[in-house]
Amino acid sequence: MKIINIVGARPNFIKIAPIMRQMRKSSIIEPILLHTGQHYDIEMSKRFFQELNIPSPDISLEVGSDSHAKQVARIMERFDDVCDSQKPDGILVVGDVNSTMACSLVAAKKGIKIIHIEAGIRSFDREMPEEINRMVTDAITDLLLPPSRDAVDNLLKEGHPASKIHLVGNIMIDTLMDSQAQIMKSEILRQLGIEDRNYALVTLHRPSNVDNISDFKRILLALSKIQERLPIVFPVHPRTRKILDDPELKAITGNMPRLVLCDPLGYFDFGRLVSGCRMVITDSGGIQEESTVYGIPCITIRENTERPITLWEGTNELAGTDTAKIIIFANQILDGKWKTGKIPELWDGHTAERIIRCIEKEL
Ligand code: UD1
Ligand code: UDP
Q: Distance, CA 92 to ligand 1 centroid (Å)?
């Protein structure tokens, strides 16, 4: 069974590492790895292949950045040719990025089976580009492999037959658990001059937060207040880099002596920062999940989340972009008034094994 595994953006690499490892042990699956090139900076792409021992891609589409329509169209054109030459039995897609949806559309029209890891998660917010990617991908997927029961329920409510849905757990947590030894060896705290349990970790990259000055300013004003009580480390995503150069925003960050800005970090260094911080302040999907597993308080800078289990069972709360609310939440954490949470069902480090068993049996 020849399966093309699709990756394109940072979180995809972290999800594919354990899947590739398990697939290579299978006697009936022949895995091919395809990188669309949606992310291409060394620190957003190649570094994860090296750290996580992901084999070099067999196929690279090198599409680069563009508007969503143009990026999706370029991936589709190039992947169409790949499918004709490779003739795969199936493709495996992860998450909700443009590469996920674009390759799924090509496969569906060619009658190639689609496996979707992280199926069924929904923010119910169609202004998020990822929500469109999730809905379209799941609508045409043959094997829906959700990370949690709420995602299973969403798929059933949308009318997908139960026979196509298999709860496998959270694949990101496989990598987190596999990497504990390297994460704990990281020297990043010393390199950044910060102390264990005595800093906040910030990441922001959602277009709704970082693509316009007024939204981003509300968030920065909150961070400016928080850093009076706690140093802040902020590895900056490439989308966010540009806006930080705006003079109005520079005037705010210039007055934040305890803000440490840095380039995006490798998986082990970043994992060390999540595991050792006092709180995470983020709009990332994956980091909401990772902080829940580490039991670290997480303030999510969004009005909604497609990972509600991190609110119900984990350490996550939604603050939106309300400056006062973000500050109140941060103070509650610093004053020891935050929920503790537990690790959700099947976020146990064995999701890749369940995925491979399921593919071998069902596809
Ligand atoms: C994408 C995903 C998002 C995911 C995120 C993970 C979509 C619609 N969005 O968002 O769901 O959470 O990746 O990080 O698929 N850029 C670089 N170097 C790179 C990559 C991007 O400089 O290696 C810059 C370019 O200016 C580009 C911008 O970042 O235009 C945005 O990149 P893009 O992949 O379109 O979206 P992300 O915001 O990264
Ligand atoms: N991550 C990383 N270095 C960083 C920021 C994030 O290795 O500087 C990891 C993080 O641990 C998580 C993943 O990248 O595993 C999340 O990716 P991102 O926030 O880009 O995307 P999302 O999950 O929001 O789609």
A: 21
> Minimum-distance ligand to the CA of 72?
1
Protein residue whose Cα sits closest to atom 2 of ligand 2: 267
The owner of tokens 């757990």 is 169
φ, ψ at 287 (rounded to 5°): -75, -25
Prediction pTM value: 0.98
Residue 283's nearest CA partner among 166, 192, 361, 205 is: 205
3-state secondary structure at position 317: strand
Tell me which residue has its CA closest to atom 14 in ligand 1: 10
Our separate counts of H helices and E strands in the chain read 18, 12
For the chain, report the end-to-end CA distance as a whole number of angstroms.
Answer: 9
Our answer on whether the CB atom of 301 is closer than 6 Å to any ligand 2 atom is: no
Q: Decide if 333 contacts 297 (C-beta within 8 A).
A: yes
Q: Are 59 and 103 in contact (CB under 8 A)?
A: no
Which domains are assigned to the chain?
2-169+347-362 (3.40.50.2000), 181-334 (3.40.50.2000)
Kindly state the helix (H) or strand (E) to which residue 81 belongs, with its residue range.
helix 68-86
Q: What's the pLDDT tens digit per position in 111-128?
A: 999 999 999 999 999 999
5-28 tens-digit pLDDT: 999 999 999 999 999 999 999 999
